[in-house]
Automatic annotation (TrEMBL):
Residues 156-232 form the MgtC-like C-terminal domain. Residues 19-138 form the MgtC/SapB/SrpB/YhiD N-terminal domain. Keywords: Cell inner membrane, Cell membrane, Membrane, Transmembrane, Transmembrane helix. One of its GO terms (cellular component) is plasma membrane. The chain crosses the membrane at residues 12-31, 68-88. This is Protein MgtC. It is found in: Cell inner membrane; Cell membrane. Belongs to the MgtC/SapB family.
Length: 238
């Protein structure tokens, strides 16, 4: 009942405009994500934007600009934790970073709307949409180009196929050759390969290597009678 007596049309209209703006902008960002079948799609981005706007608007009405600034800082950290849930490690690759960053962008647009900065909310939305759409052809073009060892940060793996009985001998040879080439090894995993063989995978700690030198190491390993196959490959993260 007290709420009815304290009702003021102007603040109510401001809140309604802020939430509707956040909903529209968050949905715009989420629509692009939904079309591409990403983890956080239409509803998630809309909810993040509306939630950020509601918190900022509430703080603005209760304690003014100072309170709104404090709430914005909590929104930033809170959405950061939410975005962390979309990041997954798949082997050597990390997926979901773009989705997490998009959620952060939706929250930024919503927070701007909640603070009444509708022009900033629009610009933030356009910037996020541009990053996810206009930059995509540029990224695809770059990814189609051959990797240059000294210019790209990649994770290198040296793989060896050998028999189960001779895996220790093969492992020692891999470690010896890599040590001679001054390539430190981070992990050396052993996985079954067929019925009687195993695959040794040595992950190098360095993010820059000489392709020709890795080719020579693989050739020396392949020349050993107890090694059936040896090869290396780079793995980039997104």
């Amino acid at each position: 009942m007290q709420t009815l007596f304290n009702f003021s049309l102007s603040p109510f209209l401001h809140s309604a405009l802020a939430l509707v703006t956040a909903f529209v902008f968050g949905s715009s960002i989420g629509y692009e994500r939904q079309v591409r079948q990403r983890t956080a799609g239409l509803r998630t981005n809309a909810l993040v934007a509306v939630g950020a706007a509601a918190f900022v608007d509430m703080a603005l009405r209760l304690t003014g600009a100072d309170g709104a600034v404090r709430v914005v800082s909590y929104v930033v950290s809170g959405v950061g934790f939410l975005g962390a849930g979309t990041i997954m490690k798949d082997g050597l690759n990390v997926r979901g970073l773009n989705t997490a960053a998009t959620l952060w962008g939706s929250a930024a647009a919503g927070a701007c709307a909640g603070a009444g900065l509708y022009d900033s909310a629009l610009l933030a939305t356009l910037a996020v949409l541009s990053a996810n759409t206009l930059l995509r052809p540029v990224v695809d073009s770059i990814n189609r180009k051959p990797l240059h060892d000294r210019d790209s940060e990649v994770t290198y793996q040296l793989c060896v196929i050998t028999t189960s009985n001779e895996q220790q001998l093969a492992r020692a040879m891999v470690e010896e050759l890599l040590e001679q080439a001054q390539y430190p090894v981070g992990d050396l995993d052993v996985d079954p390969f067929g019925d009687d063989d195993v695959e040794l995978t040595a992950t190098l700690l360095c993010t820059s290597a000489d392709s020709a030198e890795l080719d020579r190491i693989a050739e020396r390993l392949s020349a050993k009678a107890y090694i059936k196959q040896a090869f290396w490959n780079p793995s980039t993260t997104e």
